[in-house]
Design a protein that fits this description.
Shape: flat
Helix content: over 70%
CATH topology: MetI-like fold
Structural class: mainly alpha
Distance between the termini: 41 Å
Number of helices: 13
Order of helices and strands: HHHHHHHHHHHHH
Radius of gyration: 24 Å
Strand content: under 5%
Length: 286
Amino acid sequence: MKAIHRKRIILSLLPLALMLLFIYAYPLLRVCVSAFMGFTGSSAGKFVGLKNFQIIQSDIPKTVATTLIWTFGSVLPAMVLGLALAVLCSRDFRGKRAVVSINLLPYAIPLIIVASCWRFVYNPDFGIINIFLKKIGVITDSISFLGYKNALLSVIVARIWRATPFAFMNYYSALTTIPAEQYEAACVDGANPVQRFFRITLPNLKTITASTLIVLTVWTFLVFDIIYGMTGGGPVDATKTISMRIYQEMFSMKNLGTASAWSLIAIAVLVTITILYWKFMDKEDA
């Protein structure tokens, strides 16, 4: 009977397994194959080995570094801000619902709209930031926020604004699950707010921190819309992340081989980051 029951379970899961293979495994296999195939000139349709990687090798260090700065420069501040806002909103105060709603608002806006809004904010002629800084006398000439020197930091700020609500939602939900008795006991023992935060709040948020960190890292690493809408990967290569390289190789250069090579590099970097995350978290739990 157990064998029959197990067989029925396997058969019931088979359609889902086949669908997942078609959606994920087949495209991944095609990318792996395409990375070693030629798609231009005399090499079109032929196996070219590592030629596609040799074509892009001079751009790999700079692009990977830019992508990592973009990713961690966005994710870590968003996590900290999300936690701070969640702790603030976990208390009772007048207008709490309005504050929570406002905190969630950026997450409801599509990324390309976020890019357009921030491009307007950064505009050197009529952007809100430049106008404000001029009025209070901080600057006399407009700051080129999307110029070569400031472009990466500017798109990171836009991404932080968009990613913070996700961290906030997760932390805010997790804070409601922490038993009030733990805080009451700590108060009886004379623990101050800082001690309660580090000894009760943070330990109870380890799991949600791990999952939120991984999800935001993967999402941000692969984000394309904000950079495309604000800078298009420029000026020069100031904001040219791996996602932008894939887009340009595929749709501008019309080279599926080099685009697939960049995709494999992205997968390798993401897998490495995820493994490092899990190893660090395992050490913390031990």
